[in-house]
Amino acid sequence: MSETAVAGTGVRAARLLLTDAVLPAHGPAEPTDPTPAEGWRSHLAAFGPRPGGTPALVAALERSRLTGQGGAHVPVAAKWRRTLAGHGPLTLVANGAESEPVAAKDGTLLRQRPHLVIDGLLLAAEALGAQRAVIWLHGDDLGARRALRIALAERPWEGTAPSVELLDGPVHYLAGEASAIAQAAAGGPALPTVRRREVPGRPRTLVHNVETLARIALLARDVEETGTRLVTVLGNGRAVVEVESATTFTELLADLGWTEAPQAVLLGGYGGLWASWSRVAHLSVDEAALRREGLSLGAGVVAPLGAWACGIHQTARLVDYLASMSARQCGPCVFGLPALGERLGALAVGSADVGRLLDDAASIEGRGACHHPDGATRLVASAVSTFADDVAAHSAGRPCGSGALAWPELAL
Prior knowledge:
four-stranded parallel sheet; de novo design (two linked rop proteins); globular; 12 strands; Ubiquitin-like (UB roll); Rossmann fold
């Protein structure tokens, strides 16, 4: 992308990432060719000193229409206004725990530009009057933790902002969910909770994705939105790339060496949505454009499915994984998800009826103690629609017989 001047400083800021990254197929975002993290002096040379955070920053957030980059894409300004209207001690959390097993954009950002994330966290803490600032990581993300510890040690003390804590969460799919983080930050288990109304005077927690905070750090310096999107793309391994939002999915895959069109793509990760290639090939990776088509990149994962693979088999394995990662706090998680995975597995081998599969999904949808089961039911519904011809053949007892896994991490 073209460089953008930082108002009044002559400093120029370009991409969020220093460089794109290639990673193994699964696990933390450790690149095969590591890029040194941007140190404090280089950070200052690139962006200048951190400005102070004030509630006036809400206006800049509204003008930019920045949404959260963790998956839900809720407008950040709206979250800030609700927080400023609340009462009680506030903890602000930078969420760097990418719970989607193949997602790696946040881990890559933390390894390359930790100071930009810390800037955003401290700006938001000051602006919202937070008494506590926390960076939440999965316990196995050693690379991100190392980069953050070095960055925090080399920064000068900033007396107007709270000190920054690093908290390790469990390596679990649900440990990156906002209510689970809020509960853990208060000393409880890292499990999602039923959302309740705020009680005045009680401790509050606001969770922001680390990419969201990095973008806030740019906006506070009057840098326009970068116009780019951070995306994790699956293939033989993973690639984390920063692309212009106008880039189409066809251009994205071509730049990464795809020579044959996939039959479909999984958007957003294991709890995301399937879409046929014919539906998305011409679309851009811009979230607003995708939402107009009923789609979303969620946590920024693009997983192409080759023409040789069976989408029903892939989905069955995904649902099995989601069932294994449930919170086990309600019937839909304990009984519903395993039953849904079993029914889908039977369809994959040609011995189940799609009508009963959809009935099972409908019996789970919206009835969980948290939203985890809903991700699985949406995934199944999108698979039935996207792979309609295959579903009809399998349901009639004519399975394709292609049970090979498209992505190695599904074998874990």
